[in-house]
Amino acid sequence: xxxxxxxxxxxxxxxxxxxxxxxxxxxxxxxxxxxxxxxxxxxxxxxxxxxxxxxxxxxxxxxxxxxxxxxxxxxxxxxxxxxxxxxxxxxxxxxxxxxxxxxxxxxxxxxxxxxxxxxxxxxxxxxxxxxxxxxxxxxxxxxxxxxxxxxxxxxxxxxxxxxxxxxxxxxxxxxxxxxxxxxxxxxxxxxxxxxxxxxxxxxxxxxxxxxxxxxxxxxxxxxxxxxxxxxxxxxxxxxxxxxxxxxxxxxxxxxxxxxxxxxxxxxxxxxxxxxxxxxxxxxxxxxxxxxxxxxxxxxxxxxxxxxxxxxxxxxxxxxxxxxxxxxxxxxxxxxxxxxxxxxxxxxxxxxxxxxxxxxxxxxxxxxxxxxxxxxxxxxxxxxxxxxxxxxxxxxxxxxxxxxxxxx
Length: 407
Known about the structure:
The chain has 2 domains: about 1-175; about 255-405, 2-Layer Sandwich (Heat Shock Protein 90). About 60% of the residues lie in helices and about 10% in strands. It has helices spanning about 5-40, 50-65, 70-85, 95-100, 105-115, 120-220, 225-245, 250-255, 265-270, 290-310, 360-370, and strands at about 260-265, 275-280, 285-290, 315-320, 325-330, 375-380, 385-390, 400-405.
């Protein structure tokens, strides 16, 4: 199945399929970076233990100097512990950040201890206490920042999940819309195919009936009529070949394509003579660019409809009006209510019950062919009874014509 899909469309659909995952990764990377830096770079579990230990060691040294019962060796031992505690720089993590919380520095503690005197011990203790206070303040800042980072991370995850779900939902809706559109396209295509077949069946019926009638009459016709009947058979066979090209059903009946030639419309109209039909044409030739086979179908359909609604005569008149040829077909039946005239041009719409049943396709095809020729078909009730169908021919659209071929 994938081989039938164009490469460009396949790549597009694959990218859309991967889009939710790419969106999630991108959002998570961008949204979690601030929280990551806060949690990792600032050591979210940082504590001020080393600074508190420094305070305890310096305080022990200060108290040792203040206690007259302590020996010199004991005081020296306390002093060394305090000095060692202040010199273990690796224990004082985040020292620049802690010192930035106030004006006290670790060097101040070390300098005071270097005096090795009771006054220096007092200054060292004060400096250690203030540095420890700065460390506790920094610990509170780290705790606040960590809590904010965790909340931001939580929001980022929620937003990422929401946007990913929304994008996935949109892709699902898109897939459903595309599926529905494809189903509707398939339905329209099948409907058009059925309509084309119905129209072909409708248009093949007449030449078949004429062909069957001619062959039946040929069996008993006298010699002088056989030539006329053979001409009728030839014409019917030609009509069948024109209307039964299965490779051109859409061009013939739906998306009409015309093969235009300059034709004497008088000759064409007179060729449709039959019993009960009275034909009137101009005394001089009336040439016009038309697809002769399609115009013949037009007039045949109008004649067939007229003959359905009357047992009497049907008048066919060709004339020129305002520079355009027109063909009127009049019957002497009961006519049709004017409100139904336009409705009759819709596929499968039928007028009042006539003398013969129909499919309701003839007039829809007539209008389609007429408009392809730059004209139209109108209906109006005649004075004194009956209906007049008027075919107006214009200039065929170049977009609907192809170069006429001669067989």
